Amino acid sequence: MKVLHAAETIKGGVATVLKQLVAAQQAEPAVFTIQCLIPADQSAELDTAAEENIVRWQRKGRSVGALFSFARAFCQTVLRFKPDVVHLHSSFAGVIGRVCLIALYPFARPKVVYCPHAFSFLMETSGGKKKIYSAIEKALLPMTDAIICVSEYEARQAKASGINSHKLYVVHNGVPVKSEQAAPPVKEQGVIDLLFVGRFDYQKGYDLLVNAMKRLTNPNIRLTVIGDAVHGTESLEKLPEAHYTGWIKASQMEHYFQTADALVIPSRWEGFAMVPLEAMSYALPIVASDATSLPEVVIEKETGLLFKNGDVDSLVSVLSNLNQYDLREMGVKGNALFIQNFTSQAMIAKTHSLYADITNN
Questions:
Q1: Is residue 59 domain-shared with residue 46, that is, in the same domain?
Q2: Do 12 and 114 share a structural domain?
Q3: Percent of the chain with pLDDT over 90
Q4: Is 104 part of a structural domain of the chain?
Q5: Are 208 and 186 in contact (CB under 8 A)?
Q6: Which of 121, 168, 176, 122 is nearest to 148 (CA)?
Q7: Same domain as 96, residue 207
Q8: pLDDT for 184
Q9: Are residues 161 and 259 in the same domain?
């Protein structure tokens, strides 16, 4: 089976998913032949791909010219490679790729798998924009054989927006199982170490966390922050008591997951975030908002604790009462949930099964 992965950008969760799919498909050369159409300036993100399987296109920001560059490279690759399956990653690639395939229909008719990694109409934006995004998705359905939703929440919202449920398949994101779990570090008595990982922006709820931490009266709650702002830091507020690492390599993350007592995710919306899955793979419990897909991984008072989305008072209340819970036991239960549902092995198997289903029909 010849599979073309195509992406307009592969930063963040898209790269994490793509790396795992590519590694698994390259490991089965008798079954899969692959090509990966990715931005040249981001090719280092796809470090699991063999050089002969990478097709680079020149991306200079998200400009009209860059989108035309992607469209041209996509058409050329489809005509040259003649894939059986085109797997489109994220919304821009989903729109441009499917429009291109309409034009190429007399010459190439691959099966099309589209994963928006969270539909654009799920973002907090105006009702008018949501209607436009939804209309575009519905208009392109005839050129789509399957849509991968990365959460049950995303699938429900897609159905509510009028997208044909027969084309929706839930394939949760996944991360690898840790082969060896180190012994938990010796903790300072009475201290609770919190960890935040992500962008300092509105979606990720960084402002909610800052406001909540300023109102906490317990000096034994400490915060480590991994990440940074994406679009400048002029108005960014940093907590003087917190430890900021900036962006760090994935290989450096293990220490922080192992030494924290809980991961904090104050996001206002998510597709299906990778960070909580990473935390669960290390048996780290999670404090999260009850937004979008997060309750699918954070089971209240089982694998973590939920607070009301966007509500600083609710977050303060949860953080203030963390010492009432057995956080380590929550982490163990979260790890069991992860092993059962959210491993990379499960994600890969479901994706390959979907390829087989659509190519056999």
A1: yes
A2: yes
A3: 76
A4: yes
A5: no
A6: 168
A7: no
A8: 63
A9: no
Residue 218, CA distances (Å) to 7, 210, 285, 305, 314 in order: 45, 15, 20, 18, 16
Task: Output the pLDDT for position 232.
Answer: 56
pTM: 0.88
Mark the ranges of the chain whose per-residue pLDDT is less than 50. 233
Q: Which of 294, 284, 298, 278 is nearest to 343 (CA)?
A: 278
What is the pLDDT at residue 311?
A: 98
In a domain, 244, yes or no: yes
Total domain count, the chain: 2
Q: Looking at residue 79, what is its pLDDT?
A: 97
Q: What is the 3-state secondary structure (H, E, C) of the chain?
A: CEEEEEECCCCCHHHHHHHHHHHHHHCCCCCCEEEEEEEHHHHHHCCCCCHHHEEEECCCCCCHHHHHHHHHHHHHHHHHHCCCEEEEECHHHHHHHHHHHHHCCCCCCCEEEEECCCCHHHCCCCHHHHHHHHHHHHHCHHHCCEEEECCHHHHHHHHHCCCCHHHEEECCCCECCCCCCCCCCCCCCCCEEEEEECCCCCCCCHHHHHHHHHHCCCCCEEEEEECCCCCCCCCCCCCCCCEEEECCCHHHHHHHHHHCCEEEECCCCCCCCCHHHHHHHCCCCEEEECCCCHHHCCCECCCEEEECCCCHHHHHHHHHCHHHCCHHHHHHHHHHHHHHHCEHHHHHHHHHHHHHHHHCC
Q: What is the dihedral of CA 293, 307, 215, 256, to 10 degrees?
A: -50
Task: Flag whether 187 is in a domain.
Answer: no
Identify the residue whose tokens are 């317990």.
218
Say whether both 128 and 274 belong to one domain: no
Say yes or no: 113 and 232 in one domain: no
Backbone angles phi, psi at 41, to 5 degrees: -75, -5
Do 111 and 21 belong to one domain?
yes
The answer to whether position 276 is within a domain reads yes
Q: Any idea what the CATH number is for the domain that residue 21 is in?
A: 3.40.50.2000
Are 129 and 200 contained in the same domain?
no
Q: Residue 119: which domain range?
A: 2-174+343-359
